Amino acid sequence: VSQIISVNSVVSAKATMATDFVDAFTAGIQSSLPELTLEEIEFPNVGEEGVMLKGSMSDMGFDVYVLAFRKVNVIATLFLMGSAESVSEENMVNYAQKVEAKIR
Fold first, then answer.
1. Most distant CA pair in the chain: distance in Å?
2. Are 79 and 96 in contact (CB under 8 A)?
3. pTM of the full predicted structure?
4. Cβ(66)–Cβ(29) under 8 Å?
5. Given 26, 48, 62, 93, which is the most exposed site by the fewest CB atoms within 10 A?
């Protein structure tokens, strides 16, 4: 799942990222999956600023990754969930890099 938001200016995008933007996005996920806990992991070299989170639902055998980044006036929020065999940090980073490449 991905969400791409284009705002009027870089200043607005920075302000949006500075608020609880990622918390608001993940709150919706966690309300649907209350047993999921997410923790921040090292952010890859994507965009100009951002955050990356990882979680797992061991009872269901799922790993979850959330990555949000800003590039100029665009904010991208990406969500990846699946079995540990099919979902990885590397998959998320590759996906984020492909999204970033499309932002001009």
1. 43
2. no
3. 0.87
4. yes
5. 48
**What's the per-residue H, E or C state across 44-104?**
CCCCCEEEEEEEEECCCCEEEEEEEEEECCEEEEEEEEEECCCCCHHHHHHHHHHHHHHCC
Cα–Cα distance for residue pair 48/35, rounded to 1 Å: 32
Mean residue pLDDT of the chain comes to: 90
Contact 78, 26 (CB under 8 A): no
Predicted pLDDT at 103: 92
Answer yes or no: are the C-beta atoms of 22 and 69 closer than 8 Å: no
Q: Using one digit for the tens of pLDDT, what is the confidence trace for 43-71?
A: 999 999 999 999 998 788 889 999 999 99
